[in-house]
Each structure stands twice: as C-alpha cells, then as structure tokens.
Design goal:
Pfam families: ABC_tran. The chain is an alpha/beta fold. The protein folds into two domains: about 220 residues, Rossmann fold; about 90 residues, no CATH class. The protein is about 35% helix and about 25% strand. A hairpin with a 2-residue loop joins β12 and β13. The longest helix has 15 residues. About 35% of the residues are buried. Bound molecules: adenosine-5'-triphosphate. Adenosine-5'-triphosphate binds next to α1.
Amino acid sequence: MIHISNLTKTYPDGTQALKGINLDLPTGMVGLLGPNGAGKSSLMRTIVGLQQADKGQIRLTLPGSDANAVIDVLKDPHAIRQTLGYLPQYFGVYPNMSCVALLKHMAVLKGLSKKQQAEQIPKLLELTNLSAFANKSVNRFSGGMKQRFGIAQALLGDPKVVIMDEPTAGLDPEERERLHDMLISISKDKLILLSTHIVEDVENLCHYTALLFNGEIKAADSVANLVNTMSGKIWTMPMSDIQTPTLVNQNDTEECQFKMYQLNKSFRFGEPVFRVFSDSQPHKLAQPIQATLQDFYFYTRAQSEEQAPKTQAELSKDTSVRMNGGALK
Ligand SMILES: Nc1ncnc2c1ncn2[C@@H]1O[C@H](COP(=O)(O)OP(=O)(O)OP(=O)(O)O)[C@@H](O)[C@H]1O
C-alpha cells in the first residue's frame, strides 16, 4: 500500500499543484480521478520519483511483504524505481527500434538479467497481444498498440506497484475493452494506480478511488461506498422544466433549506435530459434513477466549487448557471 501524508508541490511559476495530500492507497485496482489540471500527473510523477515534492511523505509497503518493510519514496527514489512500473501520460518520440529490441533495452535499464528477459519478454508480448508485431518498429504502431507497448514495458521486472497515467486516452472502444481485460488480469497481487478523468473506467475497474480537485483530495473510499452515498438521491428530469423549477418539497420557512445540484446534462434521442442530486423528489416530472460513481464525482465537484473562493466574474457566471438549474439554495 502507498501512504501519502501532507504532500505539497508548487511549480517554479507559483502553480500550487498539490496542496497537502493525505491518502492511503490499498492493493488492487485503485483509481485517481480528477478533471484536467487537478494535479493527477503531478501526484503520479512525485510518487514515481520523477519530480521532487516541497514537503510531505510518501511511504510504500509492497503487497505481500512484511508490514515493516517500508520504502520512504522521497528519501530513496532509487528504491521505488526498482519496485514499480510506470506508464506515463506521454511517452514522447519512440526511437526507430523494433518492439522486442526496445523492450530488451528497457529491461536492461531496469536491471533485468538475460535469463529474466528471456522469460518475461515473450510473456509480456503475449499478454499485451503484441507477439505478432514483435519485430515491427514501435514508432509505426497505432495509438492502441503504443499504449499496449507502454503497459508491457511498465510490467517488466514484475513490479508489485504499477502506476498508469491516463492509460485509455485516445483508445477506440475495442482497444479500451482489451486494456481493461489486461488490467484486471494483472491486478490480483499488485497495487495498480490508474489516473484518469474517465469516471466510467474507474467504476468498472477499480474497487477503491480517490477524487482529486484543484490539488486537494476531496474523497477517498471504496467505489461501492461512494456510490451508496448517492443512493435514492439521484433523479432525471427534462431540461425544459428545470428552467422554471417547481420544488415539490419546499418547506414553510422563508429560507428554503432544500438543496439540489444539477449533476450532469446529456441528450437522449436528441432531447435534453439531466441528472440532479436531491434528498427528495425535486420536481413532479423527476424520476428516480440508479446512482453511479459519475453522480458522486459531479456532486463532489459541485460542492468543492461552492466552497472555493470566487472571483467576481465567476460569481456572475454562477447566477446564470443557477437560473438554468444549478445548485439551488
Ligand atoms: N512543469 C510545470 N510547471 C508549471 N505548472 C505545471 C507544470 N506541470 C503541471 N503544471 C500545472 O499544475 C497543475 C496540475 O497539473 P497536472 O498535469 O498535474 O494535472 P492533471 O490532473 O494531470 O491534468 P490532465 O488530466 O490535464 O493531465 C495544472 O495547473 C498545470 O498547469
């Protein structure tokens, strides 16, 4: 497991990317969810020792090992590099080398012996469905094949901790499904930390997730627990009606205590539909619907935006959002 405490990271231009992160990540498939710019890559790069934190601590206990065998990642970045696999968000340009030659080269960099290379590389090519392309140059691979190659290199040395930054980015549905299969098959005795903004991927694959917004952890729990907190409180209703909302449970007091969040607007058969969070039926046309992790994600985001100090421009934007069915107070 990875234990992170009080981790902060500010870039030289003053951007505070991580604002005192406290997080315990268990073994298995774990999601790190957050919108663009939330700080996911900053956190991942810090965990894998590619950049320094300003302060804080990251401690790693390897799955299946003695609880006392702890690696202090920030003090000993070399040790973590030997025990984890990393799939970065961008690989940059690949050299003009065949898939198998590049894997061998990376295996050497990871310190694998010739025997280990001979054992592991064919298995990894098979696992990632690249055996038929072993002699093809990686820079001629499709996006999905490059992503699978990235996973093969991350798994060299059979690491117990694997960190993947946006692994499904740019993949077509078939490739995404294949990648999901692969991740599930390798996750049994490892901690696989999956960073993404695709909430559905986390709901489908991960048993545990953390939500990162604007450099802060806003929730961390089992996916089932987070979804359960939304249970019975999610409704769908047609967009047209929310513009003049009729609250069915408005109480008698002057100030309405009732709170409703628009979570998500989408379209079905060309007609707008949106999901709202509400303790009770928010409108006579509202229908109850099964809660999802996406509902929790949007609810948490709406709450964290509400708590964040706002500029004048944001405040005037908020008023128009509210008139269209945003957070009603
Ligand atoms: N090297 C850097 N120098 C300055 N600011 C940076 C640097 N890297 C990231 N940032 C900023 O830090 C914040 C967090 O960025 P980060 O890339 O960690 O977010 P992210 O959640 O991974 O986003 P995305 O999903 O878009 O990749 C952003 O405001 C980003 O602009």
